[in-house]
């Protein structure tokens, strides 16, 4: 069901009922969930929170709660629906015969059927004509649906949608604004939206930020230091650099690591040159950022931008937001995304229950759970280091093979930290970094335009691997991913035992024995 | 008495809020609470103000005494005088804590106010301790302290009463002809 006016059609309907909130396991969903929870608390609406990790989970949860609850709200960041973000399901869901596509397409779909009904009383010729138009309409519908389902891409962040709802209800607070910023930044960090969309969404959010800041900052009535302040930052694209040392951050952020090619000796030397060029002593750069010399920190961003332009990194700075509360807590939105993602998919020994991880990640997003957030940042650091090391070893041992229409890489079971990569978000991040690194390290021009498929062992006992496909890397890509359909078709044609459970259809689980025939089918399909 | 009980009693005090919803007059056991109209200020007890603030249905206005200059004057006065000066409000400590924890974005210069109130509290409690100390030491029979608030009294109550009891027991043991059984108490 698609909603035109979010307040009337959605919130007012929900306001007096008991609601089940099924939330997908990604950061944007988490943020949207926090915003909704805050809204529900304000209006004392009862709700049940159920984390789901895939379509199967979704259906079991739906069946469990079916008797008690009539309306469900499922939220994840939007996959493949061109215009609307909420997928709102009713128990008596009718089969959507009239086309499910975007506004335009459904109009086209329903129009011929409307005409069809008007011809009800008629002669035989009319009946024949009806059948013909019906067939045409069916064919067109199939085509529209195929186009619709062929590519998968992401629309506006769900957290931002819910913030707009809160704003319409004038119940928006800085906390909610911050959560919507985190949701948007999650889409950017995990490369789900194109750069242009990110920039335009930032502009939208910036309006809200200035509205909130303007409301509260006054010369005479300055705000308590404990209140949350959100500020616009044009900051460096170095992951977690405020909570780490500058050197480590440069080594482990994919942008800088790929530009310098830090897996080669030459790259390391270039990095040293870069640091020397900026006049930053190694001792300062290798110690914790917070303890760096103040004189160095003052102009750091400009100095780095200037030098990085010389080394070919034109986009070292990115527009983002930061939050400050209390005297010592300041975080960038991307820091929080990394921390929450690391908590969500943590593979620490005693934390293997996905619901537990979900709750921990959800907690880390609120201001009062700083130690949770800090532990998340530590986990994120480990994850980034692991990714960097895996990328370096993959490139150096040349295990990326070109299979014709795509590149393929398989992580062996003995690779260090391979447990970390059995989770979808971490594996997708690794995939992206690996592709970028590969493009920088290879001389083959054709290979630079190929997509990458990566497989890693998921569950050793059951013998399954998790397979992820990402589109080719290009500056102006619109991030449309066609691997969903491709995987389905390949699985059908070879009758491999696959599980297309994840909400993101380009991530599937596969039995390891079927790996080779699945790959062959994919090669034939895509060439 | 537990400090949380004192805080509970403090929540009955009235404070001005500006609601953003409208509601007719409500009739509660403790009294009537006037009709709520968006944008118009209305007096409500602190417990209701905090609940509405947490549900983002109102904006709390700081009470009159919660102003930096007034508090600075009171602090200076308190430091000069030996006796207790009238407190900003009979529940100033609790109200400061409640309002600054939940509604610090509605109160200008919240950090300075917190520091000033803490200074006033420290001065008063120091005077109280001094006075209790001299009372016990000189074995006075009665004393009178004006302008104390319930929270301050509650802070010193247990200690003062216990120590007076101990002193009494010690004194009665020193009297000649004391019965032997009394030593067993310790």
UniProtKB/TrEMBL annotation, chain A:
Coiled-coil features, chain-numbered ranges: none
Main location: nucleus
UniProt-recorded Gene Ontology molecular function terms: chromatin binding; DNA replication origin binding; single-stranded DNA binding
Biased composition (Acidic residues): 92-110
Keywords, comma-separated and alphabetical: Cell cycle, DNA replication, Nucleus
Any single biological process term in GO: mitotic DNA replication preinitiation complex assembly
One Gene Ontology term, aspect cellular component: DNA replication preinitiation complex
Region Disordered: start-end pairs: 92-122
InterPro entries the record matches: CDC45
Localization per record: Nucleus
Family: Belongs to the CDC45 family.
Protein name, per record: CDC45 cell division cycle 45 homolog (S. cerevisiae)
Species, as recorded: Poecilia reticulata
Automatic annotation (TrEMBL), chain B:
Function noted in UniProt: Required for correct functioning of the GINS complex, a complex that plays an essential role in the initiation of DNA replication, and progression of DNA replication forks. GINS complex is a core component of CDC45-MCM-GINS (CMG) helicase, the molecular machine that unwinds template DNA during replication, and around which the replisome is built.
Main location class: nucleus
Similarity field: Belongs to the GINS2/PSF2 family.
Signal peptide segment: none
Family matches, as Gene3D superfamilies: 1.20.58.1020, 3.40.5.50
BP GO terms, sorted: DNA replication; double-strand break repair via break-induced replication
Description of how the protein assembles with itself and partners: Component of the GINS complex.
Nucleus listed as a keyword: yes
A GO-annotated cellular component: CMG complex
Identification of the protein by name: DNA replication complex GINS protein PSF2
Organism: Poecilia latipinna
Keyword Isomerase assigned: no
């Amino acid at each position: 069901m698609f909603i035109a006016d979010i307040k009337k059609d959605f919130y007012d309907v929900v306001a007096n009922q008991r609601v089940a909130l099924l939330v997908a396991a990604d950061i944007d969903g988490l943020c949207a969930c926090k915003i909704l929870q805050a809204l529900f608390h304000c209006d004392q609406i009862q709700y049940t929170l159920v984390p789901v990790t895939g379509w199967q989970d979704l259906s079991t949860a739906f069946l469990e709660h079916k008797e008690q609850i009539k309306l469900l709200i499922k939220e994840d960041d939007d996959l493949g629906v061109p215009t609307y973000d909420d997928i709102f399901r009713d128990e008596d869901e009718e089969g959507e015969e009239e086309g499910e596509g975007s506004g335009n397409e459904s109009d086209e779909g329903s129009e011929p059927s409307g005409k069809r009904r008007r011809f009800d009383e008629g002669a035989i010729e009319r009946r024949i004509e009806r059948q013909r138009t019906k067939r045409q309409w069916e064919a067109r519908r199939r085509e529209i649906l195929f186009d619709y389902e062929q590519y998968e891409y992401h629309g506006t962040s769900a957290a931002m949608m819910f913030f707009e709802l809160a704003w319409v209800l004038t119940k928006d607070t800085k906390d909610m604004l911050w959560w919507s910023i985190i949701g948007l930044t999650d889409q950017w960090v995990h490369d789900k939206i194109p750069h242009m969309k990110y920039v335009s969404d930032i502009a939208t959010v910036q309006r809200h930020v200035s509205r909130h800041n303007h409301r509260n900052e006054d010369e005479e009535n300055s705000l308590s230091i404990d209140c949350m302040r959100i500020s616009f930052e044009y900051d460096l694209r170095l992951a977690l650099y405020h909570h780490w040392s500058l050197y480590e951050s440069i080594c482990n952020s994919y942008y800088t690591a790929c530009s310098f090619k830090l897996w080669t000796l030459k790259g390391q030397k270039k990095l040293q040159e870069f640091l020397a060029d900026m006049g930053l002593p190694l001792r300062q750069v290798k110690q914790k950022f917070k303890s760096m010399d103040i004189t160095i920190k003052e102009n750091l961003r400009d100095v780095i931008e200037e030098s990085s332009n010389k080394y070919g990194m034109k986009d070292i700075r990115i527009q983002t937001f930061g939050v400050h509360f209390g005297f010592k807590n300041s975080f960038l939105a991307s820091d929080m995304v990394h921390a929450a993602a690391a908590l969500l998919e943590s593979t620490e020994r005693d934390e293997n229950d996905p619901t537990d991880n979900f709750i921990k990640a959800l907690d880390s997003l609120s201001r009062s759970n700083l130690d949770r957030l800090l532990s998340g940042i530590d986990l994120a650091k480990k994850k980034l280091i692991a990714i960097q090391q895996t990328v370096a070893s993959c490139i150096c041992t040349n295990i990326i093979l070109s299979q014709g229409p795509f590149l393929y890489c398989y992580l062996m079971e003995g690779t260090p930290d391979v447990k970390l990569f059995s989770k979808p978000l971490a594996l997708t991040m690794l995939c992206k970094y690996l592709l970028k690194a590969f493009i920088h390290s290879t001389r083959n021009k054709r290979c630079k335009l190929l997509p990458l498929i990566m497989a890693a062992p998921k569950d050793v006992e059951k013998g399954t691997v998790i397979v992820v496909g990402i589109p080719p890397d290009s500056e102006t890509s619109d991030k449309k991913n066609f691997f969903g359909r491709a995987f389905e078709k390949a699985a059908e044609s070879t009758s491999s035992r696959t599980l297309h459970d994840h909400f993101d259809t380009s991530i599937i689980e596969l039995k390891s024995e079927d790996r080779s025939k699945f790959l062959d089918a994919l090669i034939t399909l895509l060439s | 008495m537990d400090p949380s009980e004192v805080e509970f009693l403090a929540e009955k005090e009235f404070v001005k809020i500006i609601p953003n919803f409208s509601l007719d007059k409500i009739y509660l056991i403790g009294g009537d609470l006037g009709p709520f109209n968006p944008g118009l200020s209305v007096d409500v007890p602190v417990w209701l103000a905090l609940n509405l603030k947490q549900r983002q249905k109102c904006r709390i206005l700081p009470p009159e005494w919660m102003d930096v200059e007034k508090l600075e004057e009171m602090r200076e006065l308190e430091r000069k005088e030996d006796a207790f000066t009238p407190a900003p409000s009979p529940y100033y400590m609790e109200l400061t804590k409640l309002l600054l924890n939940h509604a610090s974005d509605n109160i200008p210069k919240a950090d300075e106010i917190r520091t000033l109130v803490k200074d006033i509290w420290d001065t008063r409690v120091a005077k109280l301790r001094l006075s209790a100390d001299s009372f016990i030491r000189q074995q006075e029979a009665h004393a009178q302290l004006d302008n104390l608030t319930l929270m301050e009294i509650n802070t010193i109550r247990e200690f003062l009463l216990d120590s007076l009891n101990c002193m009494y027991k010690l004194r009665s043991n020193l009297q000649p002809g004391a019965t032997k059984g009394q030593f067993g108490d310790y």
